[in-house]
Amino acid sequence: MKIKAGIIGATGYAGAELVRLLLGHPQAEIAAVSSVSFEGKAISEVYPSYYGLCDMVCQKAEDVVEKSDVVFAALPHGLSQELAAQCREQDKVFIDLGADFRLENEDDYKEWYGGEYLDKELHRQAVYALPELFRENIKGKKVIANPGCYTTGVPLALAPAVKGGLVELQGIIADCKSGVTGAGRGLSQNTHYPDLNEGFHPYKVASHRHTPEIEQTLSHLAGSRVKVTFVPHLLPVNRGILSTCYARLKPGVTAEQLRSAYEDFYRDEYFVRLLPAGKCADIHNIKCSNFCDISLHVDERTGTFIAVSAIDNMVKGAAGQAVQNMNLAFGLPETVGLTMVPAAF
Amino acid sequence: MKIKAGIIGATGYAGAELVRLLLGHPQAEIAAVSSVSFEGKAISEVYPSYYGLCDMVCQKAEDVVEKSDVVFAALPHGLSQELAAQCREQDKVFIDLGADFRLENEDDYKEWYGGEYLDKELHRQAVYALPELFRENIKGKKVIANPGCYTTGVPLALAPAVKGGLVELQGIIADCKSGVTGAGRGLSQNTHYPDLNEGFHPYKVASHRHTPEIEQTLSHLAGSRVKVTFVPHLLPVNRGILSTCYARLKPGVTAEQLRSAYEDFYRDEYFVRLLPAGKCADIHNIKCSNFCDISLHVDERTGTFIAVSAIDNMVKGAAGQAVQNMNLAFGLPETVGLTMVPAAF
Amino acid sequence: MKIKAGIIGATGYAGAELVRLLLGHPQAEIAAVSSVSFEGKAISEVYPSYYGLCDMVCQKAEDVVEKSDVVFAALPHGLSQELAAQCREQDKVFIDLGADFRLENEDDYKEWYGGEYLDKELHRQAVYALPELFRENIKGKKVIANPGCYTTGVPLALAPAVKGGLVELQGIIADCKSGVTGAGRGLSQNTHYPDLNEGFHPYKVASHRHTPEIEQTLSHLAGSRVKVTFVPHLLPVNRGILSTCYARLKPGVTAEQLRSAYEDFYRDEYFVRLLPAGKCADIHNIKCSNFCDISLHVDERTGTFIAVSAIDNMVKGAAGQAVQNMNLAFGLPETVGLTMVPAAF
Amino acid sequence: MKIKAGIIGATGYAGAELVRLLLGHPQAEIAAVSSVSFEGKAISEVYPSYYGLCDMVCQKAEDVVEKSDVVFAALPHGLSQELAAQCREQDKVFIDLGADFRLENEDDYKEWYGGEYLDKELHRQAVYALPELFRENIKGKKVIANPGCYTTGVPLALAPAVKGGLVELQGIIADCKSGVTGAGRGLSQNTHYPDLNEGFHPYKVASHRHTPEIEQTLSHLAGSRVKVTFVPHLLPVNRGILSTCYARLKPGVTAEQLRSAYEDFYRDEYFVRLLPAGKCADIHNIKCSNFCDISLHVDERTGTFIAVSAIDNMVKGAAGQAVQNMNLAFGLPETVGLTMVPAAF
């Protein structure tokens, strides 16, 4: 029998991508969907790509919870905590694509998001679910905090180096470039076609909310407090995040040692593709897939390690990773429903 | 046991798209691939999207034929005839994505392509395989001429109107707009990024080689000779063809009659999505899928019928239709391996 | 002394483009600008491209009128009539980039725009100002209706053929493709970057408001009532309109006759570039300039004439033509301030 | 009398952009152009944007030299030295857009370009001409090395901080993103439309030839040897370079001190626009203009200074700066012919 999946916030971009992935999942089916803005409307009315394939009508959130074994929430931050509580009461698995359960330290949440943790016990049950880094913690959990997009790409690029003690922990820089879907379906002048097309600019320089989440993950890997200078930019493409990460090499560390550490770390990871030496990660190559491509570079002249990762912000950076987490939570192989081949062009 | 599929010309765009589709096909597997330009090189060296997923090395064409039950040829015109003969000798199914077997009339081939039919018996065995229009002819055939891209989009847009006698056969116009992959992987100034980006222009105005193929199909449907004014344009996007087709309404024909004819004609076609009244076909909605979306419009003021179709030139316009034809040839349901959901953005 | 120019609606796209052109005009200067949405804000706050070059603050419309010799209005339809009256009272030249004064027949305005003519005398004074076609009418006029974008591109493509009686007047088709700036600065789902990027679709098929304006112009040229099937499409580029226009050749008319008619008609027109035989008009080549490139094609097989024009919708299709009209109204050479060379890429 | 300007290599992108700028220059005129690949062809045949505006035919290089007061060379490296010698003999001003005269240290040239200095005296006469930084050196010089694109954007972003001793000289990182025209007009798979569109990747990581040139400039400003980690990326847009530059703040240095240093440094520079606090530089805002927009950011949490510059790689990064240098060399105001307003969209 298939897993019954419900999607709360199904008409946002992450929700819509969940629809696409779950329609193709051989062991899950969409039980119900909800959307505050489009209640009573069909998903395919909002996304004509789905016409004839998912004409399901948006219901109320509580109806979705009731009909589902697993509930995906793709909501603005602050709206997931109550929903998580409902799911716990009814013993449903809850996978949150928002930020409410990602930060362990409530003070960080207060500082960066301006909210507070309503039910601290619930937060204790929650697990931060980046499978490649924290797989063992995730199994058996029912409140699952799905990482954000930058916060998936940057830690995957740096994890083996940081965990292996191969780079200095001071002075790490993450210069990231994201496709526009990262900004969501909501209209803004910033994402109006003529204003963005043929443009390119940084935004929220050193002040983006993903900063503490990236630092939390890297600190866990390092075993000590890591700070990061994080500068996101907006790319005139639909999908994809390229993260160019810089760290100073520890004295004596060689390019070969780094490569070998990455090979060991990611050897059994289906979704991480460590590129051969001489290649560069490119968002072109992972579109609509759950892969994270990583290329490694060393600037011998300045003693700098440069790790570049490419993910699809909507898949590995959101809906795909959420499905990967669903697979983990339900004891399925992690790759089920996620083996689509990225298009060559 | 899976169908063993071979791809000749696997490093061109249509060949590479076949790789993607066949990797995801549950009842076929890629037996071998060949490429003149990249013999000895891995497919994933040419298309890094496939890294780790298809690292198969390009062999010689004859080796591919030998190892395969079905041979797909994605070659420039003129190169398929000999290959088809080899396949017939070894009793392999041959599916030609090139133009060599598409035109029934050798004079048309001579006029538009400048070549001739080397083995006329072979041409007699060949079938023109646009399944939605000629399904019955295709079954059991072993030399299959897969239609071109424009020549799929335009006839699907017009078929019910032409076959149903609802429009005048004189004065039909097909104003088509294609994504750049239609021009192939070969370099040209025309498809150099800065020359094409933010540009848009027609090309081969009223002189494109797909003209006689479109006319052949429409003439079959009409039961009499149809001529078409065909003007292709180059769109600054990767994939997709939008065909805006114009025909004068026969006296007294209404929009309702037209819609009803289209509904009847395409009722059981999985891959044709007739859009509701008021919607417009958009290449955005069929990317990387085998769907053909069609919208219908009537200009009452001028008595003009306007049918608009959208296909992915690389899927329904090439590799996807070829896989659909393979399914037909091997007695599988036509949709096997082709049910991917087009992304919403 | 320089002409004092005022811009009402300066923060919309057409208004902003007027700012750019007037800043570079050697014989005019911007006296004042207004904007309902951004009153009290600097133009360069809205358009950072102008930072340091035009930091003028948006005032009230009446202040702009008072300070100006010529008033450009770039407003949604329906808002220009009152303003025109004010300008007439104060004897200012009024150039309307909106639709209020374009249609001679009030019934057409009622049907397509749903409004009415408040001051019929004012409308009698107004002139429809497409200089290449109606130059003589414009001189000395003070209420100037600047044509729309499609309504510039289509008539310029067809004028010599229609006026010269070389094509049939029945069955003319204009298949037009416009860049996104044509949809304006206002936000809509349609022009949200991820929804439009890599997409392409028709809109307002056979029902766009520019239809009666195109027909009015062609009817004047033909000397009899002309109807047109007009289908606009939205291109994923910022600027440019390509109009592919189809008309049946009158019996016996040759490609040479057509070319010769076009050469005669446009011989002295600086802004119309008739391309050599064999070339195709491309929006790539006229970006940010006031040029209209035209290419001519004949489909001998079907007896169809195909004229293709390319303009920048914001320049020749809006602000540039408005400046050209200002030059005409003030007795300057038409090309002053409009001789910028379109970039090669 | 106008300055007679010749362009050698006029059909490459930098050469073509020179054509555009010189056509609009009120005190210069194009005397002759040359191109090895297109000798005997008109510029407008290669770049149809210039049709009717510059139909000049490409001649031999020596003829261009003879007819000109100033010779611009836009050639691959290694080809300018002999030409410079010819110009010196005939007492023409020589402005080299290539790399042959940029590096003071011949060893750097050997290491990064693999060539050598044929005429050392000539190299001694040459001046590295980034006017905002080295204006005084340029006056009166006749062999002018025009800087490269990255090598303009990065130093302008960092100069006041480096010269003012406000940042550490170790650990400077320049993460740069360039539009595709930077790769030139020559065809490559990399810049084939479908391979690049919707993609984004770094290239020549920590090994790009502009590295020693950037370091040379920063070292002059600092008064001591500066090394830089330089990582360029390829953006899917035609024009523009955004350089995100990172440097550690010296202890105690504040955001206000930095801003004040930049204001002082660039107060009188027309082409540098220091953006107000809170704004971010964007390549969207400087297209086709000679401006360099700079925004300043401080990450207090990590003690990092982030300076972001945006230039048009073809204008301030090539042809525009070359015209600025011509103006300097001929005693004209630097801004003549370069005051075009960047389009708002």
Write the topology of this structure:
The structure is a homotetramer of 345-residue chains.
Chain A: E1 3-8, H1 13-23, E2 28-34, H2 43-46, H3 61-67, E3 70-73, H4 80-89, E4 93-96, H5 106-113, H6 120-125, E5 127-128, H7 131-138, E6 143-145, H8 150-163, E7 172-178, H9 193-196, E8 201-202, H10 210-222, E9 228-234, E10 241-248, H11 255-266, E11 272-274, E12 292-299, E13 304-311, H12 315-329
Helix pairs in contact in A: 1-12, 8-10
The whole-angstrom Rg of chain A is 20 Å
User: Biggest interface, and residues per chain?
Assistant: A-D, 50 and 50 residues
Identify the overall geometry of chain A.
globular
- DSSP summary: helix tally of chain A: 12
Low-confidence stretches of chain A: none
Biggest sheet record of chain A: 7 strands, mixed
Q: Topology as H/E string of chain A?
A: EHEHHEHEHHEHEHEHEHEEHEEEH
Oligomer: homotetramer
- Global mean pLDDT of chain A: 97
Strand order in the largest sheet of chain A: 8-9-7-10-13-12-11
Strand content of chain A: 15-25%
Count of distinct strands of chain A: 13
- The structural class of chain A is alpha/beta
Helix content of chain A: 25-40%
The end-to-end span of chain A amounts to 37 Å
Protein described:
4 copies of one chain form a homotetramer. Chain A has helices spanning 13-23, 43-46, 61-67, 80-89, 106-113, 120-125, 131-138, 150-163, 193-196, 210-222, 255-266, 315-329; strands at residues 3-8, 28-34, 70-73, 93-96, 127-128, 143-145, 172-178, 201-202, 228-234, 241-248, 272-274, 292-299, 304-311. By secondary structure, chain A is α/β, with parallel strands linked by helices. Chain A has 12 helices and 13 strands. The two termini of chain A are 37 Å apart. In chain A, the strands form 2 sheets. A 7-stranded mixed β-sheet of chain A has the order 8-9-7-10-13-12-11. A 6-stranded parallel β-sheet of chain A has the order 2-1-3-4-6-5, with helices on both faces. Chains A and D meet through strand 7, helix 9, strand 8, strand 9 and strand 10 of A and strand 7, helix 9, strand 8, strand 9 and strand 10 of D.
